[in-house]
Amino acid sequence: MIAAIEPTWYLIVASLLFGIGAFGLLVRRNPLVMFMCIELMLNAANLTFVALATSLGDINGQTAVFFVMVVAAAEVVVGLGILVSILRRRPGATADDLAELKG
Amino acid sequence: MNTTFLEYVVFFAASLMMIGGAIGVITLKNPVHAALGLVLTLFGVAVQFVAQEAHFLAAVQVIVYAGAIVVLFLFVIMLLGVDRSVDPIKIQRPLAAVMMVGLVGLVTAAVLRAGDAIGTLNPGVGIDTATVENPDGNIQQLAQNLYNDHVLAFELTSVLLIVAVVGTVLLTRKWPKQSDRETSKGASA
Predict the structure, then answer these.
(1) Residue A97 belongs to some domain of the structure
(2) Which residues of B31-64 are buried (b: 16+ CB within 10 A; e: fewer)?
(3) Chain A residues whose beta carbon lies within 8 Å of the beta carbon of residue B8
(4) Which CATH number belongs to the domain containing residue A14 in this structure?
(5) Is residue B17 less than 8 Å (CB to CB) from chain A?
(6) How many other CB atoms are there within 10 angstroms of residue B14's CB atom?
(7) Of A18, B94, B126, B186, which is most buried, counting CB atoms within 10 Å of its CB?
(8) Is A59 in contact with B124 (Cβ distance < 8 A)?
(9) Contact (CB, 8 A) for B14 and B52
(10) Is A71 part of any domain?
(11) Is B32 on the interface with A (CB under 8 A)?
């Protein structure tokens, strides 16, 4: 008989996912892919929320995940809007080309 | 074949989907392929949610993330065109790899050190899971928590979404040039 899955396992998988997302955010220079890496990190945080909500028997964790999803959607909308308006002005810009504020 | 074994199969399959998709996001050159890797990761997270009886969140995960957000990404990629690849900065990747290993190691060590304390910390009232008599238990409990204890935050999210939509429209709309506006005003006057 093997033991049931511990919440610790979910936390370890989530930390791996968060680490991969952070690595990609530091390494990739295409702004779109950087946004995808931010989504990876947000999902890792969501997974820890659900794992601890289940193990503690507290529904507040799942409500927190709901709010994280709303904020993530708003963040993607605003971020991609900024990205479209930047890349329309100068096509092919990477994150390093955006070091100055003047348009 | 008992249920514990099945839980293991689901856990490892979903974890493999998540990690594989995440590695695809950060390694694939083409942004469209990276977006498809992101879909794989998001479905893996949805499977993990189902495995932990968070049925409503799994549905929202598939609809909002894998549906709306990834479609938005693909739409922007198609709108802007796939851009050129750039050479990596020399020291960037090793430094980022060191940081990633350190971060994962630190969190994993903390989780393992906490060990059994997680889960017995401050047990709550218990989460209703789906049963034959009450198949929507999780959704009802989540709704009661959301609309009783967090109703102010819920209303504020509507403000957040409105602000985000209006801001995006303002950012991406093409405004007529100042000179054009003045000449048209002068012509009408």
Answers:
(1) no
(2) beebbbbbbbbbbbbbbbbbbbbbbbbbebbbeb
(3) 2, 5
(4) 1.10.287.3510
(5) no
(6) 21
(7) A18
(8) yes
(9) no
(10) yes
(11) no
Q: Which amino acid is at A71?
A: V
Domain boundaries, chain B: 1-83
Q: How far is A99 from chain B (nearest CA, A)?
A: 16
Q: Report if residue A100 sits inside a domain.
A: no
Which residues in chain B (72-111) have CB-CB distances under 8 A to chain A? 72-73, 76-77, 79-81, 83-84, 86, 88, 92-93, 95-97, 99-101, 103-104, 107-108, 111
The whole domain housing A51 covers 7-92
**Average pLDDT along chain B:** 83
Distance of CA A69 to the CA centre of its chain: 10
- Cβ distance of B52 and A50 shorter than 8 Å: yes
Domain contains A79: yes
More confident residue, B185 or B69: B69
Does B65 reach chain A within 8 Å, measured CB to CB? Answer: yes
Q: How many angstroms separate the CA of residue A100 from the nearest CA in chain B?
A: 18
Q: What is the pLDDT of residues A24-79, one digit of tens each?
A: 998 888 888 999 999 999 999 999 999 988 888 888 889 999 999 999 999 999 99
Domain B1-83 has CATH 1.20.120.1200: yes
Cβ of B142 within 8 Å of Cβ of A62? The answer is: yes
Name the token pair of B140.
């009802």
Segment B163-176 shows an average pLDDT of 87
